[in-house]
Amino acid sequence: MLNCDRATFLISQAQDQPLSRAERYRLALHLSICKACRGFQTQMPFLRRAARAFAKADVDPQAPDSGESK
To answer: Are 14 and 30 in contact (CB under 8 A)?
Structure first.
């Protein structure tokens, strides 16, 4: 049986490459009993889109806010 750390790793990995049949089976079994990991799996596409959008915005987190008064 997978633990949650390994399950979330596999959920993330599955976004980039196919999982083996054994990994898919063990992950499906874990997801059938773990509500938290099902929630993570549901949120994963949003997190990836948000990260890509942030990267495209080319935002410098060290730069001061442009809306601040001087």
So the answer is: no
**In angstroms, what CA-CA distances link 69 with 59, 63, 65, 66?**
19, 14, 9, 8
Buried b (16+ CB within 10 A) or exposed e, 1-19: ebeeeebbebbeeeeeeee
Neighbours of 41 (CB within 10 A): 19
Q: Are 48 and 15 a contacting pair, CB within 8 Å? A: yes
4-53 pLDDT, tens digit each? 999 999 999 999 999 999 999 999 999 999 999 999 999 999 998 998 88
